[in-house]
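Fig. S4 source data, part A: sequence.
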Amino acid sequence: MTVAQLQTFELATNAAENQDWALASDYLQRLVAQRPNDPRTMARLGWSLQKQQMPDRAEEAYRKALALDPSTTLASNNLALLLQEQHRFVEAAEVLRAGVRQSPENSELHYNLGIICELYLLDLECALEQYQAYQSVAYEKDEAVEGWIADLKRRLAK
């Protein structure tokens, strides 16, 4: 990034920290125009659009980011959450599965896929697998998730 682009990125970050999502989007759109092949900026633009209740535009930005780089975990995770909000659970799980294939060390992707599998798809085996994967890559063990794992094992043993 050039110095001017870094300054624009800083302005976008400051606007987002102040929850001025319209201003953040404005700066991010300028950056995207200058750097159309930068998936991280595209994913951040998606987030700012999502925060402004513009789900169609946010989805488009996330999908562009993932087309540029399928390992953009910010785009995978946020697109899946957006789809979940729209009750598009199968699509959300597909996005997270693709994200997990690209970035198996990302605990958040495993966690969110486990939630969708358990609560919305009622796929307990998937949920158990994802919660276990989450625990194996997370920085520290999550006691709540340990309880969920034990519960799923009991339910699946029946």
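Fig. S4 source data, part B ends here. The first helix runs from residue 3 to 17.
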